[in-house]
Amino acid sequence: MNDMRLFERAATVDEVKIRAKDVNVHYGIAHALKDVSVDIGDRLVTAFIGPSGCGKSTFLRCLNRMNDTIAAARVTGAIELDGQDIYDRRVDPVQLRAKVGMVFQKPNPFPKSIYENVAYGPRIHGLARTRAELDEIVEKALRRAALWNEAKDRLQSPGTGLSGGQQQRLCIARAIATEPEVLLMDEPASALDPIATAQIEELIDELRQTYSVVIVTHSMQQAARVSQRTAFFHLGHLVEYGETGDIFTNPRDPRTESYISGRIG
Amino acid sequence: MTDLPLNGAAGAIPDFPRPARSILETDARTRARNRAEARFRAYGLAALLVGLFFLVLLLGSILWNGMGAFMQTRMTLEVELLESELDPEGTRDPAVLAETSTFGYGDLIEAALVRTVAATGVQTGLEAGDLDDLLSSGTAARIRDAVIADPSLVGQTVTFDVLPSSRVDGYIKGRVTRESLANDKNLSPEHLDIVDALVAQGTLDRGFNLSFITGADASEKRPEEAGIGVAMIGSFYMMLVVLGLSLPIGVAASIYLEEFAPKNRFTDLIEVNIANLAAVPSIVYGILGLAVFIQFAGLPQSAPLVGGLVLTLLTLPTIIIATRASLRAVPPSIRDAALGVGASKMQAVFHHVLPLAVPGIMTGTIIGMAHALGETAPLLLIGMVGFVASNYPGGVLDGFTSPNSAMPAQIYEWAKRADPAFYERAWGGIIVLLVFLLVMNLMAVLVRRRFERRW
């Protein structure tokens, strides 16, 4: 682990972007998430770590109400984005998801051209009035996702024809093309090789300049490399949450210590 | 490592006989397994061959029996259209000509036949009145139609292409023999002598039977004039109705059930019922159509519109089941991706899920339509029986409501009639129907290949 880097990346900005309070999630009778309260900072990378089935992905999907699509899921508690309850009756999840973008574990580009993949979000949200504006948005998103140089000559070829790492960067470009404020990433690099993973991690670090990034990861090294704050989940509980450096070098909870030293999980 | 004795003398490990053997020789157990596998493959191959044999037998017998319907014997006949018989006053007015019924042409045709037979030089014991049996009983009507259409023909000697009777046609095709005529009152061996002479002379020959494909059904006495064309039009209009109704309704129902409907007892019940509807005997749909569309709603009998409605009910479950299966086959990651960038549920379905499901939907629809095209029983109950298909619909829109039949009902009608010439036409009709089904299935395969999912 690169301890040298851990301490130089202490959080500098400290505005709360998302505030979750006593969040509980039930899937039918299964109690997947228990009393989770967490404050997610703006312009920071927050990592959720923990063993499989600990509830970290469930919590991530609560943050843009993707759990709504699962009929059996029931979410209680309060989650606020900029002080507004995202589970309020007046909130349309579609509008919320335009603000809180998401990148999934498996690269899932639409079976359409690279251009269409990126242009889809801006188009349905009416972000561009002309073709030229749309072209500009697509180029900007692809540049920020570090895919422009590889993709600029083949914008009309299918997105599914890219390599796994390129596909995932395309999905990131697609997510940031709609100008979200928060970017949720569910194990974005778990299906990728180390080189593609490094590229994605570098990208995440850059995206932090503009967005609040929340990343779920299985890899503690990855959490240590990219995040400023880390939350450790275990069996549906949020066990420990704090500065990434503290969590990895000086965990307060014995379960956290066991996990990061490889004894559980 | 433990230090247990390797021979198991201490009893810790049961000592099963496991003789050391080279992998180059197979043991009895492996041989038995290999034999079982070989046997199983042989059973499978045998089943396949039996299936293939019956398929070849079926297709072979259909072609063997049905090809005859595509050939038709024709005869040229010089008829003297006497003015004294048809138009004594010389008006040449079609209305006046129409007053002469087909009986009025009987003598002219008889005279023409006598001349034709005399020209062959065959000495026959048949009377002039018996010679009529050589020709189709529809001959007089044909000539009359020609005369009314062109009154200037009256007074001339005109050469007509006429159809010999079905027995003569059968003789030329080898279906009727001199022996088989022994018990046949319709034709005698003396007639066949004349036929042989006419063939030698070239007056009577065989050609491709276009009117079988384009023509209308004819009465029981005139199998040589019967064609499947009008029934084909009936089938076409029904398929238009089926496609126009069952595709949008089926796809909309499937999308709702698969993507939007809450999963509860009510939707479960609907699901079970759709699966059950696919197994309901088609005749039940027929009687339902009779009760609801004709008796209750007052739609016309024997109309392709009603037939199409009934077949829509029949096709819907097939389309719904196929559409739901192909919607379900679209990976959830595509839906997540669309929802993740802020698409609404409907946008996710219509922009991303549905396009990927299109090949499956199209295939299901074509298969369902092919099924409907071959359906007979429900049509019989709503009056679309074969003999109704004896007139072309008056206009394009009229095709939906004017009484008609459909190909399979026409085939059934012919198969049921006594004259063996109709039997031949039934087989011919089956060939036409099979060609349609083959084309539709081919389309399904092509659609599948062309739009194969690309993710």
Span between termini of chain B: 52 Å
CATH topology of the largest domain in chain B: MetI-like fold
Biggest sheet of chain B, open or closed, and with what strands and sense?
3 strands, antiparallel
Largest interface, C-beta closer than 8 angstroms, per-chain residues: A-B, 28 and 22 residues
In short:
The complex is a heterodimer of chains A (265) and B (455). Chain A has 265 residues and is of the alpha/beta class.
Topology diagram in text:
The complex is a heterodimer of chains A (265) and B (455).
Chain A lengths: L2 H6 L7 E12 L2 E12 L3 E5 L6 H8 L9 E9 L2 E2 L7 H7 E4 L10 H11 L6 H14 L3 H4 L12 H13 L5 E5 L7 H14 L4 E5 L3 H7 L2 E6 L2 E7 H6 L4 H7 L5
Parallel strand pairs in A: 3-8, 3-9, 6-7, 7-8
Antiparallel strand pairs in A: 1-2, 1-4, 4-5, 9-10
Helix pairs in contact in A: 4-5, 4-7, 5-7, 7-8
Chain B lengths: L27 H39 L4 E10 L2 H4 L7 H4 L5 H18 L18 H11 L7 E6 L3 H8 L15 H13 L2 E5 L1 H5 L14 H32 L4 H13 L4 H15 L7 H25 L3 H9 L4 H29 L3 H5 L16 H4 L5 H10 L3 H31 L5
Can you offer a commentary on this structure?
- Chain B: The chain crosses the membrane at residues 42-64, 236-257, 277-299, 305-327, 348-373, 426-447.
- Chain B: Belongs to the binding-protein-dependent transport system permease family. CysTW subfamily.
- The complex is a heterodimer of chains A (265) and B (455).
- In chain A, helix 8 (194-207) links the parallel strand 7 and strand 8.
- Chain A has a domain at 4-108 and 181-260: P-loop containing nucleotide triphosphate hydrolases (Rossmann fold), CATH 3.40.50.300.
- Chain A has eleven helices and ten strands.
- In chain A, helix 4 (114-124) crosses helix 5, helix 4 runs parallel beside helix 7 and helix 7 (164-176) runs parallel beside helix 8.
- The longest helix of chain A is centred in the middle third of the chain and has 14 residues, at 131-144.
- Residues 1-11 of chain A have low confidence and may be disordered.
- With 265 residues, chain A is an alpha/beta fold.
- Chain A is 37% helix and 25% strand.
- Chain B is mostly helical.
- Chain B has two domains: 69-208, no CATH class; 229-451, MetI-like (MetI-like fold).
- Chain B has helices at residues 28-66, 83-86, 94-97, 103-120, 139-149, 166-173, 189-201, 210-214, 229-260, 265-277, 282-296, 304-328, 332-340, 345-373, 377-381, 398-401, 407-416, 420-450; strands spanning 71-80, 157-162, 204-208.
- Chain B has a three-stranded antiparallel sheet with strand order 2-1-3.
- The longest helix of chain B is centred in the N-terminal third of the chain and has 39 residues, at 28-66.
- Chain B is flat.
- Residues 1-5 of chain B have low confidence and may be disordered.
- At the A-B interface, helix 3, strand 6, helix 4 and helix 7 of A face helix 13 and helix 14 of B.
